Amino acid sequence: MKNKLFTKKYIKFFLLHFILVLAVFFPIGIFIRYFSIKNNLFILIVSLILSIIITTLLMKNKKNIEKLNHLKKIDNLTKLYNRRTFLELFNKHYIDTKETNRILSLCFADLNNTKSTNNNLGNNIGDLIIKSFSEILKSGLRESDIISRFGGDKFLILFVNSDVTMAKKGWQRVLEKLNELNNENLYPNKITVSAGFSEFNPRIPKTIDMLINEAEFNMYNNKNHYKNTNEVIF
Description:
Layout: H1 2-31, H2 37-73, H3 83-100, E1 104-111, H4 114-121, H5 123-140, E2 146-151, E3 154-159, H6 164-183, E4 193-200, H7 208-229
Antiparallel strand pairs: 1-3, 1-4, 2-3
Helix pairs in contact: 1-2, 4-5, 5-6
């Protein structure tokens, strides 16, 4: 499918550049009074060659620009959306939700004990844990859910068109997959995560900052509970 789209774009660009090149060369041919059949054929061949070169270079440059733009949107370690991109997408869905009178939910997640892991086992192990958890998020949640590494060991997940109950069901799948990973004993200590939720209903006015702060506040309450009881709640 991607190859077909690329081919269509290439042909479209080629025809455009071919017409432009011809528009330049034919007046030149007329001007120097060599407007014969042979010279027309020569101009046509040169135009074709130049059009192919120009189209190929521009398409290659376009692909490089698209690749760079994509890299700007993702976190290098986890390949999840970065903070900036997430906030842009959050704002878009926030506006859509208000206009369509739907509901969305937010999860603020924070891996537990990452500081002690980094201090005792090294940052490389800490990074591996973050990457492993990121893969669990991608496999455990829906394609419509927007997942981001908000910074360090913190993650934000936007559950589009979902109330908190639905969002927590999705989060339960994440915890089940995390439990499966822990059972493999790949790391010295079990990976645990604390999470908090907030919900946006257009009938109850809340800003994006309020939703993030509410989810973060709930997350820290649950993290304190984990520290005191060693029990993960959300």
